[in-house]
Structures are given as C-alpha cells and as structure tokens.
Amino acid sequence: MPERTPETHVIDFRAAERLLAARDPRGAVKLLDSVIAAHPENTAARLLRARAFFAAAQLRPAELEFELVLEREPDNAFAHFALARTFQRSGRSEAAVRHFRLAAALDPNPEYLRAARFDAGA
User: Fold this and answer.
1) Dist CA 9 CA 113 (whole Å)
2) What gap in Å lies between CA 9 and CA 67, rounded to an integer?
3) What is the mean pLDDT of each run of 10 residues along the chain (122 residues)?
4) CA atoms within 13 A on the CB side of 49
5) DSSP 8-state secondary structure symbol assigned to residue 122
6) Pair 100, 115: CB distance under 8 Å
7) Which class for 37: exposed (0-12), middle (13-18), buried (19 or more C-beta within 10 A)?
8) d(Cα 116, Cα 91) in Å, to the nearest integer?
9) Per-residue pLDDT, 119
10) What is the DSSP annotation of 80-94?
C-alpha cells in the first residue's frame, strides 16, 4: 500500500463524503478509518464517520462517534441532533428528546425545533 500523507488523507476524506452522498456508507467508513487512525483529533472526520455508521444502521458505533464529537464540541447542534436520531432509531426515546432539545436550543433550525417539539408547545 502506498505511503499515506496528509494530502492522501484529505483526498480520502473528500472521497468518503462523496461515497456517503452516493449511499455507500460502508465504503465511506473504510476510507475514514485510515484518516482517523492518522488524525484521531479530527472532529470533522469523526462526524462524517458517525454519519456513515448511522447510514449503515450501525447504531452503536454511530452513537460512540457522535458522543466523542460532543465531548470535543458540546455546542455542535448537528451532532446533538444526529445523536438524538441515533437514540430514536435504537428505541431510546428519552435520551433522544434530551438531545433534540439541546440541538434546538443551540440552533433554532426548524427541523431541530420540530424534533424537539418546541413548536407544539411542549
């Protein structure tokens, strides 16, 4: 295998974005594994890998990645929203509501507000 460089990691990250958009989340995860191994502090790569795990219905790995992102960026509204969707999908509605509400409190995005049920007077 050719030597991995910062440039090839950027190429892999961009290719993983395209694979996820093309509905190949498992391919995206494979590319991101090497990026994250080389740059474990890269929150953007971890967030993308969490999204890929979610899209591949690998809910526990998605949950762990979203939680790691939130440890580093507790004000990341999207990560709260995505973690809430992960909890929702795994039948943990109480945990989901908490993160939906955190997402909506951090960003009044209409989708976040609807999910948090703030627009229904909840």
Assistant:
1) 36
2) 23
3) 80 97 98 95 97 98 98 98 98 96 97 82 42
4) 25
5) -
6) yes
7) exposed
8) 16
9) 53
10) HHHHHHHHHHTT-HH
Which structure tokens are listed for 22? 């093309």
User: In whole angstroms, what is the distance from residue 70 CA to residue 75 CA?
Assistant: 7
The pair of three-digit structure tokens given for residue 45, joined into one six-digit string: 């790569």
pLDDT score at 6? 79
Please report the pLDDT score of residue 73 as a whole number.
98
Cα–Cα distances (Å) from 27 to 1, 20, 94, in that order, read: 17, 8, 32
15: buried, middle or exposed (CB in 10 Å: 19+, 13-18, 0-12)?
middle
Q: Rounded to an integer, what distance in angstroms lies between the CA atom of residue 54 and that of residue 64?
A: 11
Q: Contact 54/62 with Cβ under 8 angstroms? A: yes
For residues 116, 83, 21, 33, the Cα torsion angle rounded to the nearest 10 degrees is: 170
Q: Is 45 helix (H, G, I), strand (E, B) or coil?
A: helix
Six-digit token string for 120 = 């229904």
pLDDT of residue 117: 87
